[in-house]
Amino acid sequence: MYKYVFRRIYQLIIVFFLFLVTSYVLFDSIPGNAFQSLLLNPELPREAYDLVIQLYGLDKPLYERVILYIQNFFRGDFGYSYVHYPRTPIELIAERLPRTLMLFAMVNIVAFYTGFLIGKILAWRRGSKSETWITVTSVFSYTVFYPWFALMMLWFFGYKLDWLPIGKFLYPEKWYDSPYDSDVIFVSMIKFIAVASILQMLAFVYTRNIESISARRNVRFTSFMIIIIGSFAYWNTGEMLNQKIYAMDIAYHMILPVFTVTVVAFAGTALLTRTTMMEVMKDDFILTARAKGISQKRIRDRHAARNALLPVVTSFIFTIVTIIDGSVLTETIFSWPGMGQLILDSVLREDIPVAMASFSFIGVFALIAHFIADISYAYLDPRIRIQSQG
Amino acid sequence: MNILEVKNLNMSYETLEGSVAAVKDVTFSLKEGESFGIVGESGCGKTSVAMSLLQLQADNGKITSGEIIFDGKDIVKLNEKELRDVRWSGISIVFQGAMNSWNPVVKIGEQIREAIREHYPDKTKEENTDKIDELFNIVGLDSSIADRYPHELSGGMKQRAVIALALSCDPKLIIADEPTTALDVVIQDQILNEIRKVQNILGLSLIYISHDIAVIAEMTDNMAVMYAGSIVEMGNTKNVFANPQHAYTKMLLESTPSIIGPKKKLRSLDGEPPSLINNDNCCLFSYRCPSPTDMCKNRSIEMKLIKFDDNHYVDQCCMDCG
Ligand SMILES: Nc1ncnc2c1ncn2[C@@H]1O[C@H](COP(=O)(O)OP(=O)(O)OP(=O)(O)O)[C@@H](O)[C@H]1O
Ligand SMILES: [Mg+2]
User: What distance in Å separates the CA atoms of residue A103 and residue A274, rounded to the nearest whole number?
Assistant: First the structure.
């Protein structure tokens, strides 16, 4: 297992360098030379001009510039934003990223969880009426033209019913005299969700060894309730009590985008799960499990679904990788000022340092996600662990 | 006392071409501690009989009539919950192709533990671990196997572990459906010995299914010869071997080499197994029969087991032919 991890890390590093070089060369070769053209912008202050020339070594040959770029990358130095001068790309990303992560991590977890659950049930109820209907609905939401669908949702829930806010991630009027920056709130929310999910996962892992099924179920339920109660307590004490109303405001604004993207995103998982489950259910070990007298539900969850999980996890990780670039569309429609909008703006307005920093960041993010995918895959499928040792 | 009585069991698969009568009017019984063999060529319905006993036939397979009395209860009439109780702790099965009987992502020990937990929920973890060690010991496996994944074991080890699995809930009856196909001859022999040993130690009843009549001779007290879904000859294994009556049984015996006795030329079985779709109740072997009677050829005699000798029954069509 360790050997496997090390080999993965080693491959990762090579791919990462290739990625840095390629992305630099691609930017450099944009027709008309984006670097130079921006420098001709008369609005740019003189000192900024010199700084940029020096920073990127724009007068040097290509390979020297690449090396300089890589060095700067590791110093975390991407220069300054042309548009938001004197803010740096890192500052901008640090501000935008939590918003995007919050929204899309939420969406993806919800979408994959429900998708997997529904796909599992679909496969198990093969041939029933409910199966047909849910499958048809899933195919619809899988193939629907997403921007149209999102606008329809906005129109219906935001305008027609007027239940949910249209666009933006907060009501500015509520925040006028707020002691907190929205970023602070976002970060607390992310921290809270991360801690809660890790606790839940730990509870799940540690209860695996309880022999009696009913005792295990009870312990799991108790731990779940404790986490829920703990969350309430957490948000109602001290510092967090003050942050609560702002967090609620953001959460309220998240409902519609989360729901919309979930409806579109769950279907792919559901259909994938359904297909793989149906394959797995033909396997002999399902028959063994039935012969053992195991309950249908347990066979479905423990034997069939557990084996059908592998391709689903892969597709989940691939989706995680595309969270940031995939957020462009959604963030534009719901006016959610996250990474997607930052990328779109920086590209449209030729804010090269920000664009490059964002793309490098996406690259790092993608690589890390793939790495996690490989590791979790090895964890889920013992056969991979063995092959990788050889 | 009879632990199992199968009475006039009929089972058929619904297919697009029509209904396939895989089990036709099968009747046999099994005493406690006894072993019963079912032999026949591929596709004659051996697995279908075995699956019916546990109500595990494919979704398109339906039992149209008959009774399966196990331990005083008719299995055909049980509901899902009651069936789950009978499965594994009453009747357990070693599947044909037991190599694939293991869930690839769960450790061997855990898969055995799961069965025990289902039927004996009050046992502690330590008791279960001891039980698994003991089972592995019986089938000649090291107890460390419990912590391995299926793909880490050889075919023979997997097969032994499957036998341990089958024993895990102290069943009264074990069905072994060609448990040694896909194993090499030496391992086959070891596994057969293992099964026999286990059966003797634990006093289990055994149904042994095979297409190899020599193995049946070695393993069983009583036997049935199946052809195209029906039992054509049944009785004490020794009697059937000493004095085969049905033409099909004779052909099966002549196609198997024997190490004792004078050298004989081996005979191969001519012809194809018949189609099982929608046919009358006459002998389906007649067109392969070396010397069928006129009645048989005219299809004017129905199939029916009649008594030939003490504990030896033969299909009436073939009493005079062969
Ligand atoms: N699910 C099914 N649907 C339709 N027909 C089936 C199905 N399962 C089995 N059959 C048919 O039923 C007949 C008996 O099959 P079965 O598997 O019981 O034979 P078998 O004696 O176990 O053969 P083998 O020695 O090859 O295992 C065969 O003709 C087979 O084609
Ligand atoms: Mg078979």
Answer: 27
- Which numbered ligand comes closest to the C-alpha of B17? 1
Digit-coded pLDDT (tens) for B88-108: 999 999 988 777 899 998 999
B294 confidence band (pLDDT: 50, 70, 90): confident
Ligand number nearest CA of B24 is 1
Cα atoms in the 13 Å half-sphere on the side-chain side of A387: 8
> How remote is the CA of residue B95 from the centroid of ligand 1, in Å?
14
Q: Which residues pair with B35 in a beta bridge?
A: B206
Tell me which H or E stretch contains B235. strand B230-236
Q: pLDDT tens, A314-364? A: 888 777 777 777 788 888 888 888 888 898 888 888 788 888 888 888 888
Query: For ligand 1, what atom is nearest to the CA of residue B48?
Result: 18
Note whether B117 contacts A306, CB cutoff 8 Å: no
Query: Which one-letter amino acid corresponds to residue A357?
Result: A
Which alpha helices (H) appear in chain A, and where do they start and end? 2-28, 34-39, 46-56, 62-74, 89-124, 129-143, 146-153, 172-175, 182-206, 213-235, 238-280, 284-291, 296-298, 306-321, 323-333, 339-348, 352-380, 382-389
Domain limits for position B39: 2-90+175-186+203-259+267-281
| Partner A, chain B 96-155, Cβ-Cβ below 8 Å | 97, 100-106, 113-115, 117-119, 121-125, 128, 149, 151-152
Residue B213 CA, distance from chain mean position: 12
Taking contacts as CB-CB distances below 8 angstroms, the residues of chain A near B95 are: 284, 287-288, 291
Question: Has residue B193 been placed in a domain?
Answer: no
DSSP state of A62: H
pTM summary value:
0.79
| Tens digits of residue pLDDT in B152-197 | 998 889 988 999 999 999 999 999 998 887 778 888 888 888 888 8
Nearest-Cα residue of chain A relative to residue B88: A292
Residue B75 lies in a domain: yes
On whether residue B6 sits in a domain, the answer given is yes
Domain with B181 in it: what CATH number? 3.40.50.300
Percent of chain B with pLDDT over 70: 93
Q: What is the ipTM of this complex?
A: 0.87
Q: What is the DSSP string of A153-203?
A: HIIIIIIIS--S--SSSS-HHHHTT-SS-HHHHHHHHHHHHHHHHHHHHHH
Helix or strand run (H / E) with residue B186: helix B185-202
Q: What is the CA radius of gyration of chain A?
A: 25
When divided into structural domains, chain B yields a total of 1
Burial class of residue B81, CB neighbours in 10 A (0-12, 13-18, 19+): exposed
For residue B297, is it within any domain?
Answer: no
Q: In angstroms, what is the span from residue A340 Cα to ligand 2's centroid?
A: 59
Across A248-263, average pLDDT: 88
